[in-house]
Amino acid sequence: MSDLWTWHGGAFDAAKRHFGESEAGWIDLSTGINPAPWPGAGTLAIDWHRLPEPDALAGLEAAAAAFFGVEARHVCAVPGTEIGLRLAGRLIGGDASHVAPGYRTHGAMFAGSAAIARDAAPARGGALVVANPNNPDGHILDPHALRAARAPHDWLLVDEAFADAQPAISVAPDISDDARLIVFRSFGKYFGLAGVRLGFVVGPQRFLSELRALLGAWPVSAAAIAIGTAAYRDRDWIDAARRRLRTSAATLDEVLQRHDLIPVGDCPLFRLVETPDARTLFERLARAAILTRPFADQPHWLRFGLPADVHALARLDAALADG
Question: Where are the alpha helices (DSSP H) in the chain?
């Protein structure tokens, strides 16, 4: 199976080349990105002629901070959470552990990071990297358990890239200058605008000062600032999106269960199934022009993003039945 499909979701062009074009059009279910994006991005006036002003960046971070439930001084915008994760590992350094299975980058943040099971006690101190909800299985850790996990570690780093739909699970409100806690948040997944390449690191001010020094001037684009600021302030859309995602995830569950695929996890942006025929199922769906997410290190797993509408859901239902 191509590394392009097992390395990360979204290898859409590669799938088209390998499996061919489709008159009905391809459906991309390989990512955990909201298929109903925030609708205001195309209506904003972006000043492409000037570099972003510091006040505009501060406004973006303030809007994001209000959404996360933290003070603005604890928020730093980055050009995508991926970069924030890697820079945080570089700044902290030393021994580290990461929960596995999980997001691949977590193991690459620290040199020699030790993979540990979710419920296992790490064999050493240092930093601990964990995702909540976990990617790719959607498992959610109780915030109280995360707070308890912080005690024996020098740093606790929590990747909350998929947490926007379930704000109650976030530990971002625990951030302070005295706590060795860092939270990572993604804009593109919940708001359905991954191409904006915008994320946030939430942490102690001293750590963020070091991070800003690495990022340099103008860390994010004028478009990212304008879109992010307006989207985070759109409370009506945010509330409606949370309701819609819960409904869409429940509907996807019904379709999967109808075909004896039992979804696991509680993240409403995607569903994971375990089946011994995961590779066969991936290829069968791809021949029907439906791209899902397989995993090289977990060959019995297949992840499904949310179909964008009833037509996409019906095509998935039919393709699953055509076995």
Answer: 3-7, 12-19, 54-68, 81-92, 104-108, 143-150, 205-215, 222-232, 235-258, 278-287, 310-321
- Does the pLDDT of residue 100 top 70, yes or no? yes
| Residue in 270, 274, 299 with CA at minimum distance from that of residue 134 | 270
Mean per-residue pLDDT of the chain: 93
pLDDT > 90? residue 289: yes
- The CATH T-level fold of domain 3-37+236-321 is Aspartate Aminotransferase, domain 1 (3.90.1150)
Asked if 190 and 21 count as a contact pair (C-beta separation under 8 A), the reply is no
| Residues in contact with 109: Cβ distance below 8 Å, sequence separation at least 6, in sequence order | 85, 86, 88, 89, 96, 98, 129, 157
CATH code matching the domain that covers 41-233, chosen among 1.20.120.450, 3.30.700.20, 3.40.640.10, 3.40.50.300: 3.40.640.10
Q: What is the pTM of this model?
A: 0.94
From 221, 301, 313, 219, select the one nearest 265 (Cα to Cα): 301
| CA dist list (Å): 148 to 144, 153, 321 | 6, 10, 45
The answer to whether 181 and 171 have CB atoms below 8 angstroms apart is yes
Is a pLDDT exceeding 60 seen at residue 1?
no
